[in-house]
C-alpha cells in the first residue's frame, strides 16, 4: 500500500513538472512594419522597413540564413573569375515562382535592367553602381542593354563588376533592386501588379494571401518555394498601424509580437525591464535633412548653427532613455576602416560632449549670418512622424528657442507624406533616417552621391562625387578608406543634414517571440519565428 502511494505521488509530481515545461509553439505570428507601405515592388522600394517585406516575398541570388549568415539563395552556386570582376551564378533548377513557373536567369537580367533604366526612376538605383557601366546607364549616357548583366541560358547569369567588390555577395542578399521580377506579369498588370494577392507573383518564402489597405497584409508559405520545409512561421500577419499606444496595447494583449513603431516614450524604461524592447544597434542614423536650396537654409553658417544648437546627450538621457549613441557625424559606429573603426578613427564633426561651447559657436554663426539673437529670422517647419520622433523634435524646438531665439513649428505626419514632401523639395527640415545595406562606410556615404535618389537636401558636390567614384574603383583598401574620410569631410563642411542619434530603435517585441533574426542592417527576418508559451 505504502509503495503504491509513493508511486502515485511520484506520478503526480512528474505530471506537474512536465506541465511546467510543455513548450507550445504557435507558428502564426503578427508583426507591425509601420503604416501602409509605399510599394511592394522590390525594384521601386526605397524604405528600410519596406525591405523587410521584400526579403519575405522575394529571394535574391544569395540570402541570409537563420544565423544571419550569407548563403546560397536562388543561385545554388557561383563562380568568380580570377580578377574578381565576373560572377557567374547558377540558378537552382527547382526554383519556382509562386504560380509554378521556373525562376530563370532572364528574370534577374530583366529586373536589374529595369532598375537601371532611368525611365523606371527607382529610388535605390544607385545600388547598382558596382555593376559595370551602371553609372553611365543611370545617367542616360549609355543604353540599358549596356549594363553588364547577361543571362547566358535559363540557369546561368553573368554579372560583371566595375571593380572587385568584397561585399558583393552580402550586398545582393538584402538589396531589393537585385531581386528578380517577372517581365510578363509587369507588362500585363503595370503598376497594379504588386497591389493584389492574385497578381503579386513572387519567388520568396511567402506569398500574399490577403491585403486590406491600412489594415493588414497577410503572408503565408509559398508552397512552390524550394526550401519551404525549413520555414517555421507558416503565417505572418502584418498589421498596419503607426500609433505607438495602439501597437503597445496589441502587444500586451498578445495580438502583436513585434512592431517597428517606436514604443511610447514614457513607457520605455518599464518596457525594457519587462523585456518588451528590442535594443539592437544598427548601421544607421536618424537626422534632420535640410532643404539647402530654400531661403535662409541656403546659408552654410545657418545650417551649421542649427546643427550645434541642441543637446544630443539630453535627448538620450531625458527622452529616449536608451543606450543610444549621439550622432556627431554620418557614418555609423562599428563599421570597419582599413585599420580599426571608421568612426573612431575619424572622430566627430560635432563635439556633442561640449554643449556650452557649441551654443556659443552657434550664436556666433547666427550673428555672422545677420540674425543676432534670432531677430527677423523666419519660422522654420520641422516635418516628422508622430510619437517618439515628435517628442525628440519638440526638444530640439525648445533648445532652438532658448539658445538662438528662433521659432520653429512641428508638422507631425505619416512618414510617406514627409518623404513625398522631401522628394518635391517642399520642406525646411525633415526628420528621416538611413540604414546601410552592407557593412561598409560606402553604404552610408552613397546616400549623398550624384546618382542617389534618396538625397533631397540639394547637396551635390563634384569633389564629393569624384571621391566616391575613386573609392569605388580602387583595390587598395587603405586608399579607399582615405577617400571616404575625405568625402565625409566635404559633407560636413557643407552641412546638408543635422545628425541626431545613431540607430538603436525602441522597437517593441513580445518576450514570447522566438527565432526572429535581427541584424545591424535592419533587414529583419521572421521566417524562423514562433510564439513560445509555457503552461504553469
Keywords:
single chain; 536 residues; alpha+beta; 7-stranded mixed sheet; 5-stranded mixed sheet; 21 strands; globular; disordered N terminus
Written overview of the protein:
46% of the residues are buried. It is globular, with a radius of gyration of 25 Å. With 536 residues, the chain is α+β, with helices and mostly antiparallel strands. It is built from 17 helices and 21 strands. Residues 1-24 have low confidence and may be disordered. Helix 9 (300-308) packs antiparallel against helix 12 and helix 16 (462-473) packs antiparallel against helix 17.
Total beta-strand segments = 21
Q: Quick check: average pLDDT?
A: 92
Helix content: 25-40%
Share in β-strands: 15-25%
- Seen as an oligomer or otherwise, the chain set is single chain
Low-confidence spans: pLDDT under 50, at least 5 residues? 1-24
Class computed from helices, strands and strand pairing: alpha+beta
Q: What is the rounded distance between the termini? A: 31 Å
Largest sheet: 7 strands, mixed
- Rg calculated over all Cα atoms: 25 Å
User: Order of strands side by side in the largest beta sheet?
Assistant: 9-10-11-2-12-19-13
Number of helices: 17
Shape: globular
Amino acid at each position: 500500500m505504502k509503495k503504491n502511494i509513493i508511486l502515485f505521488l511520484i506520478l503526480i509530481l512528474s505530471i506537474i513538472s512536465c506541465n511546467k515545461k510543455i513548450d507550445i509553439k504557435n507558428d502564426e505570428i503578427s508583426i507591425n512594419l509601420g503604416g501602409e507601405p509605399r510599394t511592394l515592388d522590390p525594384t521601386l522600394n526605397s524604405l528600410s522597413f519596406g525591405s523587410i517585406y521584400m526579403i519575405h516575398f522575394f529571394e535574391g541570388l544569395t540570402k541570409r540564413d537563420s544565423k544571419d549568415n550569407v548563403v546560397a539563395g536562388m543561385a545554388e552556386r557561383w563562380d568568380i573569375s580570377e580578377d574578381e570582376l565576373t560572377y557567374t551564378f547558377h540558378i537552382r533548377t527547382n526554383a519556382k515562382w509562386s504560380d509554378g513557373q521556373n525562376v530563370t536567369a532572364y528574370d534577374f537580367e530583366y529586373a536589374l535592367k529595369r532598375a537601371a533604366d532611368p525611365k523606371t526612376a527607382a529610388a535605390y538605383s544607385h545600388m547598382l553602381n558596382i555593376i559595370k557601366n551602371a553609372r553611365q546607364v543611370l545617367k542616360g549616357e549609355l543604353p540599358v542593354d549596356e549594363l553588364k548583366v547577361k543571362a547566358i541560358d535559363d540557369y546561368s547569369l553573368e554579372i560583371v563588376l566595375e571593380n572587385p567588390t568584397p561585399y558583393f555577395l552580402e550586398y545582393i542578399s538584402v538589396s531589393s533592386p537585385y531581386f528578380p521580377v517577372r517581365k510578363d506579369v509587369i507588362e500585363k498588370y503595370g503598376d497594379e501588379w504588386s497591389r493584389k494577392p492574385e497578381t503579386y507573383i513572387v519567388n520568396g518564402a511567402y506569398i500574399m494571401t490577403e491585403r486590406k489597405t491600412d489594415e493588414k497584409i497577410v503572408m503565408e508559405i509559398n508552397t512552390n518555394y524550394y526550401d519551404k520545409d525549413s520555414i517555421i512561421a507558416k503565417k505572418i500577419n502584418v498589421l498596419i498601424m503607426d500609433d505607438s499606444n495602439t501597437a503597445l496595447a496589441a502587444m500586451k494583449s498578445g495580438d502583436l509580437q513585434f512592431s517597428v513603431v517606436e514604443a511610447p516614450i514614457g513607457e520605455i524604461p518599464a518596457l525594457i525591464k519587462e523585456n518588451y524592447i528590442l535594443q539592437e544597434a544598427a548601421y544607421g542614423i536618424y537626422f534632420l535633412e535640410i532643404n539647402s536650396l530654400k531661403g535662409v537654409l541656403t546659408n552654410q553658417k545657418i545650417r551649421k548653427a542649427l546643427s550645434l544648437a541642441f543637446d544630443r546627450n539630453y535627448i538620450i538621457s531625458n527622452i529616449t532613455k536608451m543606450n543610444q549613441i549621439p550622432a556627431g557625424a554620418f557614418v555609423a559606429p562599428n563599421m570597419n576602416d582599413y585599420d580599426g573603426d571608421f568612426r573612431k578613427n575619424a572622430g566627430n564633426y560635432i563635439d556633442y560632449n561640449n554643449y556650452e561651447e557649441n551654443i556659443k559657436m552657434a550664436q556666433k554663426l547666427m550673428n555672422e549670418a545677420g540674425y543676432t539673437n534670432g531677430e527677423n529670422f523666419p519660422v522654420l517647419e520641422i516635418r516628422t512622424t508622430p510619437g517618439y520622433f515628435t517628442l525628440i523634435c519638440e526638444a530640439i524646438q525648445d533648445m532652438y528657442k532658448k539658445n538662438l531665439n528662433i521659432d520653429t513649428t512641428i508638422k507631425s505626419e505619416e512618414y510617406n507624406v514627409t518623404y513625398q514632401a522631401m522628394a518635391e523639395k517642399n520642406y525646411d527640415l525633415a526628420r528621416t533616417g538611413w540604414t546601410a545595406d552592407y557593412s561598409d562606410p560606402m553604404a552610408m556615404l552613397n546616400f549623398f552621391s550624384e546618382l542617389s535618389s534618396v538625397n533631397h537636401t540639394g547637396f551635390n558636390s563634384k569633389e564629393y562625387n569624384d571621391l566616391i567614384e575613386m573609392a569605388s574603383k580602387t583595390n587598395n583598401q587603405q586608399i579607399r578608406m582615405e577617400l571616404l574620410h575625405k568625402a565625409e569631410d566635404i559633407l560636413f563642411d557643407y552641412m546638408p543634414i543635422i545628425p541626431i542619434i545613431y540607430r538603436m530603435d525602441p522597437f517593441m517585441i513580445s518576450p514570447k517571440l522566438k527565432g526572429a533574426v535581427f541584424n545591424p542592417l535592419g533587414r529583419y527576418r521572421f521566417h524562423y519565428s514562433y510564439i513560445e508559451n509555457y503552461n504553469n
